[in-house]
Each structure stands twice: as C-alpha cells, then as structure tokens.
Fold each of these.
Amino acid sequence: MLNCDIVVIGGGPAGLAAAIEAKKYGIDDILIIERDKELGGILQQCIHNGFGLHVFKEELTGPGYAEKFINELKGLNIEYKLDTMVLDITEDKLISAINTKDGFMEMKSGAVVLAMGCREKPRGALSIPGTRPAGVFTAGTAQRFINIEGYMVGKKVVILGSGDIGLIIARRLTLEGAEVKAVAELMPYPGGLTRNIVQCLDDFDIPLLLSHTVVDIKGRDRVEGVIIAKVDDNKKPIPGTEKFYECDTLLLSVGLIPENELSKSAGIEIDRGTNGPKINESMETNIEGIFACGNVVHVHDLVDFVTEESRRAGKNAAKFIKNQLSKNDHVINTEAKDGIRYIIPHEIREENLDKNLDLFMRVVDVYKDVKLVIKADGEIVREINRKHLVPGKMERVKISIKDIKNKNISNITVEVQGKGKQYEGI
C-alpha cells in the first residue's frame, strides 16, 4: 500500500494549483491522480483567450494557462499519475485507484484534496421529446471534438442554453464555417457572462432567444431540425409560438454539475444549492483532512478564481499535515437569505483566517440598482451597492476580519435589498 502526505484527485487547474501551493508550504510527499492522459483538465480544449488576467496579469489561452502550472509542477518534482481512475475514498482517507500500468492500487493519505471539476448536464436531464438521432451533443463534447480531435460536429447548428461554454462554441463553430441558427435560453436572462454574449453572439449576429426552449427534435438517423417555442412565466411552452429551425446539430449548454460521486462515497455532506461539498474557511469538508476546491465545490466563471481558491485549499491541506489548523469548536455559519442562491464557505473558524474573509455567492435572479447586505447575528457589517446582478456572474464579497473576530458571532447572512427585476414581464 502506498502512503502519501497529500493526495490530490484531479489534475486540472484546481488540482495543479493546490498541489503546487502545498509543496511551497513545505510538504514534499504529494501525489496528483488524473484520469485523463494529460494534465490540464478542461483547459486543454479551451483554445480561446481570456484566461490569466487576474492571476498572471496577461491574457492567455486555456492551454497556455495550464502550461504555466504544468511547468511549475514539474520544476517542483511533484509526482502525478495519468490515465488513473480513482474508484473510492473512505472517511479515513483510504483511496482505491486503478490504471493499466500499476493495476489496482490502494493508498493511505494524510490529507486529500478533491479537485475533480464538473460535468455537463446531458439530454437525459432535460426530457426533450423527439427521436434519438445523431447530431445531439453537449457543448463541451463538441468543443473537444473540434479543438482536440479535429472533427467538425455539424454545418447548421442550434444551441440550447446560453451558458459560457455554449456561447464560446457558437463563435468557434462560426469561425470554422458552420451556421449557428440561434441560441435558445429557457430563462428570461442569459446564463453566461456579458462579455461572452457580446463577443460570441452579438459580434457574429447570432440570435439569442430568451424565454425559449426546444420542444421537439426532428430526424431519425441524423438531426433534421428542431422546434423552438416561447415559454411562459412557469417555464412551460406557449401553444402557437412553435417555430421550426432546420439544422443538422443540436448542442446543449444547459448547466454544469460538480463531479461528486467520490465525495458522497466518502460521506462528505453535499450542499443542495451548489451540488458540491459543504466546506469551511480552509476549504475543508465535514470529514477532517479532506479538502475540496474549484468546480467540484461550486461552478466558477473564471479559472483565475479557481486557482485562488485551490491555492488556499492546498495551503490548508499542508497546514493540516503540520497540525497548524485550529479545531476550535466555535463555528460561524453562513446563510443565504433573500435573493441569494448560496454562499461559500458554509462555516467559518475565525482563528484560521489569515486576513479578510472572502464570501462567494450567486443571486437567484437578475437585479438592478440594489445592494448586497451582509449581517452578523442580525447586525449590518457591510452594504455594497450594485447597479447590476445576474445569476451567471459569481459575486465576491470581502469582510474585514476586525468585523467578526473575537465577537462570538454565530451567524453571517447575505441578502439582496431594494430588488428590481430587470427582466420582469419578459
């Protein structure tokens, strides 16, 4: 049986950043386990630019961003196993894994960092009527086919969902010569970042149909077209609004799900709002010594934020090995109130905060001219005015440590006040 101080599961941007930070904090015995044949995770198929503006202060492609971390990892001589699948994790941090070189392996780790990322919602999660012809893909699958495998997925394309991956693949397909007929979005507001709406749809005259969805797929052997209808306030198709779009490909960009089968098998508590583990200020789960970071915790907009969060997880995993994390019984709970979908972290032990407390959250609707109100045990500690809040953009709020430390606070809440729905009535 192998023994390691820290095992990082996942060799994408989260796992790489966590492993490197743990190494810098003085832990030498680190192993990364990656199920793909190369490090870098989803970044390797994201050949567009826009990465690294926060972390490196320069604009990079996905592979370029990953390369910086891979080179640093190798320079630090951190070990990794590729093409290796983790089968199970137990509460006492016993890991079972398998690959074609070593066969079945068991390893005991002092600390574990979960960095498995997320996956796309498939067609089966949507219950779209129609036959099952060729030509229906998730947007991420299409991105891999085009950017890595070198295959064109179709010539006439409709995209369901306005998540960032779907917006980016709309532009990519257009540049490769395909015709993107439309992007249909069930909600009355876009799901992706505003910059991607502008750069990927508006700049290429691709229609965005808000409050619309695909109600039927036509074609037997290959997609021949889809029927798109407008939906009402209850997200139900409105009879008489159906329109046929001729196409040979339907791409689904309808949301991402944190990859947490391993987390559940270890007995880690899952937050229903994020579908990721409940974590504390140190990125530690309810299982002592098991940490989580990146999209396995909650889906991020920018990989730069994944990196910052994962560095914190790696550093605190190293602190755990060195017995430097406080285990004080006094815990501050965070709670999402009116207008807020979730808050990360879920629990705070103030003794482990280095500087300020960072809270990450998403709102449940589109708002304009409102304020985020942060309260500690019912008393306001900070108010932040916001001209515009959208569910597609993660919000980050800093709270000064002096506002919460040594005050015996038990609860921090965040809510939206003065709500004005921008898309009301659409």
Amino acid sequence: MTDPLMKVRLDHLENLKAHGIDPYPARLPAVEPIGGVVERHADDGPDEHVAIAGRLVSFRRMGKASFFDLRDGTGKIQVHATVDRLGEEGYSLLCESDIGDFLSVSGPVFRTKRGELTVGAEEWTFLAKAIRPLPEKWHGLKDVELRHRHRFLDLIANRSTRERFLLRSRMISSIRGFLDRQGFVEVETPTMQPIAGGALARPFITHHNALDIDLYLRISLELYLKRLLVGGFDRVYEIGKCFRNEGISTEHNPEFTMLEVYQAYSDYEGMMELAEGLVTESLKETLGGLVIERGGEKIDFSPPWRRVRMFDAVEDATGIDVSSLSADEITKAASSKGIELPEAEAGRLVEELFERFVEPALIRPTFVYDYPASISPLAKRSSKDERIVERFELFAYGMELANAFTELNDPIDQRERFERQQRLREGGDEEAHRMDEDFLFALEHGMPPAGGMGIGIDRLAMLYTGAESIRDVILFPTLRGRGER
C-alpha cells in the first residue's frame, strides 16, 4: 500500500504532467549559486534580476501570495510568489510543490519590510519531484542510526554535518598541498593485492574469476610504496582506502582512509619533523590556528611536541619496568598489581599495557617511540638494542593518529622477520604478517635508507571537527544490515 503522504505527492506529480510540465527535465535555465546572490546583497547590493535553483525547504502559503525558501549547496534564500506575477495557473501549480522538490526561480532581488533578502518570482521551472517526504521533524535530525544509514537525509537536515565534511575536504587538500610543496609525488597503488601486507590485521578476501586467484583488499599502502623507493622515487605519498576485517568501534571502521608517505634518506626522527610540519600547517589552513578545544580541554599543537619512549611511558603508568623482562616476568609483575594479561609474547604484553594504561591519557600531541621489534616487523632495529625498533606513534586526545618507522631495508633481516610472523600465523595468529616474496625480491635489489609514516585521515578529521565517533566523519560508514529500508 502506498504511503498516504507519498500518494499526495504522486497526485501532484500527475497533475504536473497533465499540465504539460516535465517533473524531471533534462535541461534547466541558466542559474547561479544562491550563496553568490546572498553575498552580493549582504550590504544592500545592486538592483538586479537573478536566476537561482535549489531544494524547497519551507513553504508559507497565504492566499494569492506566498513565501518559500530555496536551498542549494551554497546557501538559502527566500522567494516571494504572487498570482499577479505568475498568473492563476502558474501560481496554483507552484503552490502544489512539496517540501523536498527542486525548483528554479528568476526575478528581482529585494528586501521585505522585515529586511529579509528575497527574490520576487517572475518565472519558475520545475526541476525534480520528491515523491517521498523527508522524515518527521527533519529539521535538526537527531536519530543517529538514520543519520548514518541515510547520510543524504543528515546532510539535508543538519547544516553542521555538511560543514563537518567540507572541513574534512579542506583538511585533505591542505595535506596534499603541504606534501606537494615538499617535493613529494602523489601515486596510486593496487587496492586488490595477492598478499595483504604492510600491517598486522585480518584482511577481506575476494576472488578474481578470469585469473582464478584469490585477492585481498589492502590493509595498508606500505609495501607497494616502498617498491617505488627501490625504483627511484625518493619522495612518494598516497591517500587511499584501506580495509580491515576487524571490530567496529568509535575509532574503527572496516573501510578507512590512510595517508602514507615515504622519504628516502630519512629516518623516524625525520618523520617526526614531517608530522609536526604537516599537521601544524594543515591546522592553520583548515582551522586558522594551532589550539583546538576537545572535550572541554584546549589542546595546543605548537611544536615541538612531547616525546617519550614506550617502555618509559608504560613504567610511569603501571610501575612495571618492562624494558628487560620476559613475558612470564611481565605477567607476574602485572598480576602482583592486580592487572590480568592474556597469554602472549613480551612485545604484545608491553603493547597491551600501553593501550590500557597509557594511550587514553595522551591528550596533548605526543610521540611515543622505540617499540618492541616483535610487534614491528617492517621497522629497522635500533643500533643500541636489537630488541627495539626505530618506530613511533603519534597520539592526541587519547587517539593514535600516526605510525612511523625508520624503514627496514635489510632484505635478510626482513626475510627472517617474515618467517617469524609466518610461524605465528601457523600458531593461530590471523593478524600476523604474511610472507611476501615479491616484496623481498624488490628489497633484494636495494632500497635506500628511508623514513615512512602512515596517518589516519578519519581520526585526524575527528580531531579537527570534534566528532566523538569515526562514523561522524565518514560519509557512508559500514553498518549492520537490516531487512527494511
């Protein structure tokens, strides 16, 4: 059965057709953005006729004269329509328009007695009929499930949502501009890969019928970008989608956007400097300053940012010196303090303690550096301690924003680490790194010393916009399916 509200709209649709009006014309009159008209007349601009188009968002019928509002992507403006200007038939058909329809209007610009900028409708054209009504109380739509599942309704109803995604776009543009000015080249690498490498994560799998091979949606951009370092590109970056078949949370979505950047003849300290420059320049261009307020707390991104060793941060937070302890010793020391840990090797236990007791308290921008080698199979070992790799993660507001290495370019060491990861996979660790002979083949041809860094674009957007969930900065987040629309 057709919804009664939809039936009214379908009747209006048929009435338009009966009067020879195409409700979905392929051509429309030349129009200009509403925002430009509003801007020109901010201080009582010139007397002029304009032609505009937009979605009908309100209609106030008052006999032989009516007011309605049109909104496009740049702004909103009031329109005044009368029988005298449009004629009986034209005015009557216009008054059958429904909220959500798209119209174009042309006429003079003036201000009402109340001072509201208005276009006097002399001609109008129907552009598109909305046969389904907007949700009840669509102004300021609050239903989170509805907003995420049908983002178009959220964008129609909530101006703040639109502004959030425009800010995200400006943020990405500023990042690209910064890297381009630094001499980096933007490239594209495969989304479907024969081996899901470059991170410790569970991938999505698919099958290519013509080649009869399994492929994986990439979990990282890293290994193909490092092939380009081998090939002679000294500074490369990519902003692209990655996919991980893992849990969903306020900071995790199965499909997410990463920036990865690699620079030959650099190291993880060079990447720290690059991260500071990139984020601070982006903040200035996007938000106009380096101090942002999140959760009632002001966070100053003025460099230099705090730096702390991972082992020191864990010891300060838990009282456990994890720098020289075995897995058994870490487990016992934690148990004595009432902290229960899963069964795992030492590096994983250090990571567990860090994530539980350190990470949530990292509010101001902080580089946490020098990680256990066992959880960092693609990073170069420290010359001071073989158990440590030259790796850092950047945190702010309790979120990991970036991960960076002095890149491992020793193919023999890399093969040994892959073999160790392979043994972990055989032992049941589905997130362990896979053996990648093709990448090793490239590395064996020689890769220059380099620094590499990955930055989570979605989490950076959360920080910039104040969003508390990653779903609020992804236009179409992954959601559980449901039977009805």
Amino acid sequence: MDRKIRNINRNREFFDPDDTDDYDYRSEQKKKEKHLIRWGMVLMLLLTAIVLASARIKNFSVIGNTRYTSEEIVDLIFSDSWDTNSFYCFCKDKTREHKQIPFIQRYDIDWESPFSVVITVYEKNIVGYVDYMSSHMYFDKDGIVVESTGEKLEGIPMITGLSFGSIVLYRELPVQNMQVFRDILNLTGALSDNNIKCSEIAYDNLLNATLYIDDIEVYLGGNENMEMKIFTLRDILPKIQGMKGELNLSIYNESSDHESYIFKTKKQ
C-alpha cells in the first residue's frame, strides 16, 4: 500500500503544474530563434541581391579580333546599360542567343571574376566580295555569301568577271564554274602569306586572273604555279613601286633559271 502511495506521489511530482511556465518559456525562445534565422536569411538574400545588382564588369580582354578593334567589340556586345551588370550578363550569356555582328562567326565570354571577362572572337573566313544591287556581297572560301553591306572591308579584294544570277545571303554565289572559288582561295592565301594587298582580282572566261595594285596591272594567268608567281611578285613590287604599267607573270616557268616576267610602263 505504501508503495502505491509513493508511486502516485512521484507521478504527481512529474506533472507538477509549476513546470508549465518553464515549458512555455522554452517554446517562446525557439520561436524567437526561428524568426531570427528567417530574418537573417532574408537579410542575406537582400544583401546578395544588392551586391549582384551593383557588380559591374570593368575589365574587358578581347582576343581573335582583326576586323574590329577591341573597343568596338566591347561596344557592340555590351551596347545596353544593363549588359555590363555581372549577374545580368551571366544569365543573358547562358540563356539567350548572342548578338549578330557583321563579319563575326561567333564569340565566347569567359569569366575571370565578377568584374573581369575575356571575349574570344571567331571571325568569318572572307576571301572576297562582288558588287550586287549597290551592296558589297562578301563570300567565304566555299563561295557562301556571308555578309551584305555598303561598308568596304579593308584588305578584302573585289572580285570581277564572274557571271552570276540573283544573289541570296547565306547561299552560294550562283556561278557556272565552282572551280573559281578554289582559285580565289589559293590566290588570296598566297597574297596574304606574302603581305601583298590588291584592290581587285579580275577573272576572264578561262579563269585567268589579273590583279590591280595601285596603278599596276598584274596578269597572272591560270592557277598553276600561283604560289611561285606571287612569290616572284613580292620580289618585283619594290622595284616598280610608284610606277604605272602592266606586269605579266603568266609565263612563269618553274624549271627556268631566271625570272620570267615582262613589265610595260604606261604614260603617267
């Protein structure tokens, strides 16, 4: 009987109503801690948003560009006021198509930090242009028209003598003999390797080529031995610079021991 009374007394002590105040106090403390954590997270998010909204790209490095200066590339890509915002630019770069820039195939943006980017430019491989309906139609090594503009691109020769119908952007130039594009690529490549600039390359019906360099007409003939013809031209040009005349390199003979060329001067 005494044991039962002692057990009942113990149970009464466990459910002592005086302990409810302590329980309520601990519950309130936990609620306050949760509120503080929530407000702390909200504050952190706000601070992060403020930092992201205020971070601006300040350093730009551009590589692979020859047609545009680095400043022009930056101005074209980051043309809007928000484009230099680090967070906006990162999201835009990953979720949207890049801007279309004339003579540029594509570009990549690599991040060094939230304030510094490296822009890698991949230019279109343009070998020449033809005039069509008051526009310069630039084409690549495969004869694909890649740009139509009134702008004349420095270092790219005009190609004349080609017969074609209507020209459509991003399509092949509709010429009868596709061999001409391989000849143009071979010729312009040799000119570039020897640092020779010409304003025009004219072809006849047999695909014989004539260069126009200032006041000098250089008749090259067919595509055979073209690299050696241009190599010879590189050596001759300093001797006839500033003169007006016609230079015939079509009779170049690789097996000959002497240079084979004829230069006829014209009256100034």
